[in-house]
Write a structure and sequence with these properties.
220 residues, alpha+beta, Immunoglobulin-like, 2 domains, three-stranded antiparallel beta sheet, 23% strand, globular, disordered N terminus
Length: 220
């Protein structure tokens, strides 16, 4: 059994890949178009329409929460936009108000885009591997729900030991992986829950100073 696990672990190490940065035009703007422009198109003091949204967001002071900025490149937690869609206490009603609210993967995508630097355009030489976050980031697990496998990916600011624990909803450990002194940058691997029953799993990524958990739904 141990030999099998070591073999799987070796394969996973070989599957690390650099991920391209979140594409604003193709991944972030469609979120605004589908959920926000009904109010923030021609009214509301913030225009999120295609072609003008970026200039109204990044490094722009929020009218309602001055001196805070709508989007602070590299810092989702201090960006008004992320706090509004996340429903953070102290930022008023969670947005979007119509059909509230965005699902966790969508909110996570916005968070990742901001933490990557809130880029408007992606160039061939800009990738997640070139951007070092200030803290450990677990990207939205994709696809989710999934069958037969899903990709777990994260960004880390420095070389540190990374441990991934996967639990079922009864709190029982279902799978785990360890990466010793994983290097700074972007990492990912495909999780194949062979032999496990379908259901909801909690994926917990633990670094040396930070722990993040997400849900993953395994279908059969």
């Amino acid at each position: 059994m141990k030999q099998t696990r070591y073999f799987i672990f070796s394969i996973l190490l070989c599957m690390f890949t650099l991920l391209q940065a979140v594409d604003y035009a193709n991944e972030i703007q469609p979120i605004f178009t589908a959920n926000c422009t009904g109010c923030h198109g021609s009214s509301g003091g913030l225009n999120l329409s295609e072609g003008v949204s970026y200039g109204n967001l990044v490094n722009v002071t929020s009218q309602g929460y001055a001196p805070s900025l709508r989007v602070v490149p590299g810092s989702a937690s201090t960006s008004v936009l992320w706090n509004k869609v996340s429903g953070t206490t102290g930022y008023g009603s969670q947005m979007p108000a119509s059909g509230c609210c965005l699902d966790d993967p969508t909110i996570g995508l916005i968070e990742t885009w901001i933490n990557e630097g809130a880029l408007e355009e992606e160039t061939a030489d800009i990738a997640k591997g070139d951007f070092l976050p200030t803290k450990l980031i677990l990207n939205p697990i994709y696809p989710n729900p999934f069958n037969p496998s899903t990709t777990i990916s994260w960004e880390q600011p420095g070389a540190e030991n990374i441990h991934i624990s996967i639990f079922n909803l009864q709190g029982q450990l279902s799978d785990e992986f360890s990466f010793t002194k994983s290097q700074p940058g972007s990492h990912s691997f495909d999780w194949h829950p062979a032999g496990l029953p379908a259901g909801v799993y909690l994926v917990r990524l633990t670094g040396e100073t930070f722990t993040i958990t997400q849900k993953a739904i395994y279908l059969k």
